[in-house]
Amino acid sequence: MSEYNGARSQGMHVVHDGPPEAPPLVLIHGSGMSGASWNPLVPALAGHHHVIRVDLPGCGRSPASPSYAVPDQADRVAAVLDDLGVRSVVALGHSSGGYIVTALAERRPDLVHSLALVSTGPSPDALLPQPALLRALLAPPLGPLLWARRSDAMIRRGINVTCARPVDVPDELVSDVRHLTYRTLRSVLRAYDAYIEERNVPERLAALDVAVLVVFGGGDPRWEPSSAHRYDAVPKARVELLPGVGHVPMLEAPEATSRLLLGFTAAAAGTPPATPTA
Questions:
Q1: ∠ Cα 207 209 212 (to 5°)
Q2: pLDDT digits (tens, 9 = 90+) for 129-139
Q3: CA torsion, points 135, 137, 143, 148, in degrees to nearest 10?
Q4: Which of 14, 30, 143 is CA-nearest to residue 84?
Q5: Is the pTM of this model over 0.85?
Q6: C-alpha torsion sign, points 259, 262, 267, 271
Q7: 144-169 pLDDT per residue, tens
Q8: Cβ contact 210:52 at 8 Å
Q9: Are 66 and 76 in contact (CB under 8 A)?
Q10: CA–CA dist 59, 30 (Å, integer)
Q11: What is the CB neighbour count within 10 angstroms for residue 134?
Q12: How many other CB atoms are found less than 10 A from the CB of residue 87?
């Protein structure tokens, strides 16, 4: 049903699923996560697409980088796609991965056909007070100490506090998150904050001639769910809210999320809506 293999390209770990000749779909994970965060969606997406998952620098199985600036990371993703001979791609980002795919479209409009953003906060003022466990893990003085002592159970709990209901976290994702250093995470978060402080995401997208799907959980504890409608200002954007879902729809509602994504990619390609095959 899907074909799995991993390799390095531009110094980053890249995984391919689905037929190589199918329309390409690149998946970019959020802060502190990895390509494994998409695992529950891959069987359905790979039934219709050549799915390309990239572990961003310092995350998952990709080594650290001198720069985590969003434009630099977008350029590295573009170089991966160029190496693969991809000419036109649908780019999908989860959470802060949405900033990377937005920057990819800004810098390479020739490459990005359309964009899908899942749980991508539109601007700094939409950020909610974070769950207590995340505050402890992500900020000094406790952050560095707790990070070095994380157990698998703590990693799973850290992901679950961003969800509206308990989820099973893939073992591969837990292993990948364990590889992330505290120093790298702090550098990544500063880079992402700088990107949306410079200019918010809806403004950036409004300047592009690209179709956009925005998916938000109605119970997202990280970003104000109603802020999803700030994307209504983007001319070619469609906003979808998933009731009872938190910040990680891929783990919380994989079937509903797959259906929305496949419907969007089919509409962007001008083909009949695809039905998830798994």
A1: 95
A2: 999 999 999 88
A3: 180
A4: 14
A5: yes
A6: negative
A7: 999 999 999 999 999 999 999 999 99
A8: no
A9: no
A10: 10
A11: 17
A12: 11
